[in-house]
């Protein structure tokens, strides 16, 4: 079968997985529901208890998982391509911590302005991207330098977050959840602007996926093919900051998805174009975070585990399995 | 045609290319030779607008490079760089990227673009591997895939920075044959070569560089007579009775 059709089939499979995980996330929890109850809950005119649970508790959380998963995954794809570095991700190069510091700043000083949080997260993420890239560029711009600069800047920003927590102890409880990453308490109010930011960001990236593909050939080849490399690098880094900032503003410091999902998708869709890689990463990121969040809120009910812990428990073994499968395949 | 007038390029304070004037004509193969680090790659990068010169002028097909957009430059000059990444894409996708300067938004390749890419892959003998990932190819096959991308770009001027790297002798000869065919089609070809014997035998013109300067530019016979190779490399050139040219280090 032609590779293109294989990829298309796999994208359809990912879409099916996302739909199944959405249905699963709606149906499990303290109140279990089957598909007809879910449909009734949404469609009945007099909203029942189930309807309210679905609409006010589960729907925002499901949307949050989809938005954050998609945003972080695509942000990872962009950062890895632009920096030609498979080890780069929003978490590792400090973008999440930059957004985190800005969010902490807002939580401490302007707790009443909820809508300022995504904007602050974007500004924090963007300033961090520019800082890390400038340090790496002036220090030689090797793959290792970018990672080291990111780790160093991340540590500094995390120290800033802890400093805020020391001087504003009232944000401590919220800050702990924020640092672990989680989707509880997410509201439509914050999801509307962040969802829009992620949606527009992904559409722009899909539209410019050919430019991203060319950028992936390396600077010299990209220039030879007529691409304005500096402009597109800058643009893609801005979009990566918007996507990661939007996700971090309500989901906290979930760092692993931006690193692992692009690789997972790449392993599963060997040799695909960037357009398919981005589209698949959207679905893989959303499905993965949604499954992890569903496990986080139901596995030890009534207690809830931070989703970051579940991501590590599910994601790391799966990623190691993929790496070994890939190695076996190469040896065969 | 690429015309360079009094070109100088710097990396910070390092003067990489010093006041070079040269013309690379259509229908000719010009081999650029010189010791490592003498500025060959910098000169070629400047010729396709990748390095901004600090002084001097570059004309591509009689138009100043500074007056051309990046896309216009890419439609007129193609560069095969010395170092290339191995992206996680198939041979076909890579070769098709050569059509990028020719497609507008929404950046969708037409059947004609695909046909041009297919012909280029056939010409380089890699069409049977078109669905394979670049990472699964040998160094030589990967090199041929990149050269196929260059042909797909279909430019009047073709610049190659050490194109024979990784190629075995059969494919080196095959590459030379392709370059000669392109020359006969009237293309201007400039290539960095390390095998001086090959350059003397194969190129129409030779540019000898050392320390960022152009020592000489002329036909192989003129270059041999000028002693520029001896000056640049500190070697002597003698003609063999039976064979071609060979080098003797002092």
Task: Describe the overall structure.
The complex is a heterodimer of chains A (332) and B (250). Chain A is mostly helical. Chain A has one domain (3-22, 61-331): ABC transporter involved in vitamin B12 uptake, BtuC (Orthogonal Bundle), CATH 1.10.3470.10. Helix content of chain A is 78%, strand content 0%. Chain A has helices at 3-27, 35-43, 49-82, 95-109, 116-138, 143-167, 172-180, 188-207, 209-215, 219-224, 229-251, 256-268, 274-298, 307-331. The longest helix of chain A is centred in the N-terminal third of the chain and has 34 residues, at 49-82. The relative contact order of chain A is 0.16. Chain B is of the alpha/beta class and 250 residues long. Chain B is built from nine helices and twelve strands. Chain B has helices spanning 40-47, 70-76, 91-96, 111-123, 139-153, 169-184, 196-202, 220-226, 228-233, and strands at residues 2-11, 14-24, 28-33, 55-60, 63-64, 77-80, 157-161, 188-192, 205-210, 213-218, 235-239, 245-249. In chain B, the strands form three sheets. A six-stranded mixed beta sheet of chain B has the order 6-7-8-3-9-10, with helices on both faces. Chain B has a four-stranded antiparallel beta sheet with strand order 2-1-4-5, covered by helices on one side. In chain B, strands 11-12 form a two-stranded antiparallel ribbon. In chain B, helix 4 (111-123) packs across helix 5 (139-153). The termini of chain B are far apart. Classes of the chains: A mainly alpha (332), B alpha/beta (250). At the A-B interface, helix 9 and helix 10 of A face helix 2 and strand 6 of B.
Uncertain parts of chain A = none
pLDDT < 50 runs, ≥5 residues of chain B:
none
Q: What share of residues are in beta strands of chain B?
A: 25-35%
Q: Order of SSEs of chain A, N→C?
A: HHHHHHHHHHHHHH
| The CATH architecture of chain A | Orthogonal Bundle
Largest interface: A-B, 24 and 35 residues
What percent of residues of chain A adopt helix (DSSP H or I)? Answer: over 70%
The main pleated sheet of chain A reads as: none
Helix percentage of chain B? 25-40%
At CATH level 3, the topology of chain A is ABC transporter involved in vitamin B12 uptake, BtuC
Q: Could you give the count of β-strands of chain A? A: 0
CATH topology of chain B: Rossmann fold
Biggest β-sheet description of chain B: 6 strands, mixed
Distance between the termini of chain B: 37 Å
Task: Work out the helix count of chain B.
Answer: 9
Oligomer: heterodimer
Count of alpha and pi helical runs of chain A: 14
The radius of gyration of chain A is: 20 Å
Query: Compute the gyration radius of chain B: what is it?
Result: 18 Å
* Average of pLDDT of chain A: 86
């Amino acid at each position: 079968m032609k590779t293109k059709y294989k990829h298309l089939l796999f994208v359809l499979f990912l879409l099916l997985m996302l739909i199944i995980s959405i249905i699963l996330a709606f149906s499990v929890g303290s109140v279990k529901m089957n598909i007809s109850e879910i449909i009734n809950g949404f469609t009945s005119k007099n909203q029942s208890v189930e309807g309210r649970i679905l609409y006010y508790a589960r729907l925002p959380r499901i949307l949050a998982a989809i938005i954050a998963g998609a945003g972080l995954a695509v942000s990872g794809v962009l950062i890895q391509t632009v920096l030609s570095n498979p080890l780069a991700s929003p978490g590792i190069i400090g973008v999440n911590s930059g957004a985190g510091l800005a969010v902490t700043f807002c939580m401490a000083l302007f707790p009443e302005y909820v809508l300022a949080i995504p904007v602050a997260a974007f500004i924090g993420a963007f300033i961090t991207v520019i800082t890390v890239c400038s340090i790496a560029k002036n220090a030689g711009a090797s793959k290792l330098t970018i990672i080291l600069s990111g780790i160093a800047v991340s540590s500094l920003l995390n120290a800033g977050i802890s400093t805020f927590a020391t001087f504003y102890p009232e944000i401590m409880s919220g800050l702990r959840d924020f640092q672990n990453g989680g989707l509880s308490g997410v509201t439509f109010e914050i999801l509307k602007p962040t969802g829009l930011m992620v949606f527009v960001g992904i559409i722009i990236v899909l539209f410019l996926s050919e430019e991203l593909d060319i950028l992936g050939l390396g600077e010299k080849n990209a220039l030879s093919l007529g691409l304005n490399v500096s402009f597109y690098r800058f643009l893609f880094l801005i979009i990566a900051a918007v996507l990661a900032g939007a996700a971090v503003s309500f989901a906290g410091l979930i760092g692993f998805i931006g690193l692992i999902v692009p690789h997972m998708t790449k392993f599963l869709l060997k040799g695909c174009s960037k357009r398919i890689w981005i589209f698949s990463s959207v679905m893989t990121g959303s499905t993965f975070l949604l499954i992890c969040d569903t496990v986080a809120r139901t596995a030890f009910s009534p207690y809830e585990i931070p989703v970051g812990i579940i991501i590590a428990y599910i994601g790391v073994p799966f990623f190691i399995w993929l790496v070994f499968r890939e190695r076996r395949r190469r040896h065969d | 045609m690429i015309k360079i007038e009094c070109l100088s390029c710097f990396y910070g304070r390092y003067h990489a290319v010093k006041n070079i004037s040269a013309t690379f004509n259509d229908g000719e193969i010009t081999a650029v030779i010189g010791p490592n680090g003498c500025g060959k790659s910098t000169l070629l990068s400047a010729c396709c607008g990748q390095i901004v010169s600090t002084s001097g002028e570059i004309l591509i097909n009689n138009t100043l490079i500074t007056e051309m957009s990046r896309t216009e430059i890419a439609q007129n000059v193609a560069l095969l760089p010395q170092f290339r990444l191995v992206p996680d894409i198939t041979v076909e996708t890579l070769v098709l990227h050569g059509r990028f300067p020719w497609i507008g938004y929404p950046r969708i390749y037409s059947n004609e673009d695909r046909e041009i890419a297919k012909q280029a892959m056939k010409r380089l003998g890699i069409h049977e591997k078109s669905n394979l990932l670049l990472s699964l190819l040998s160094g030589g096959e990967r090199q041929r895939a990149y050269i196929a991308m260059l042909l797909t770009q279909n430019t009047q001027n073709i610049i190659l920075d050490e194109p024979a790297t990784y190629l075995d002798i059969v494919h080196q000869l095959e590459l030379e044959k392709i370059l000669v065919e392109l020359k006969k089609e009237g293309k201007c070809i400039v290539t960095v070569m390390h095998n001086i014997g090959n350059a003397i035998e194969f190129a129409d013109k030779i540019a000898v560089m050392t320390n960022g300067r152009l020592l000489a530019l002329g036909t192989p016979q003129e270059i041999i007579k000028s002693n520029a190779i001896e000056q640049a490399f500190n070697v002597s050139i003698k003609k063999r009775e039976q064979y071609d040219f060979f080098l003797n280090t002092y």
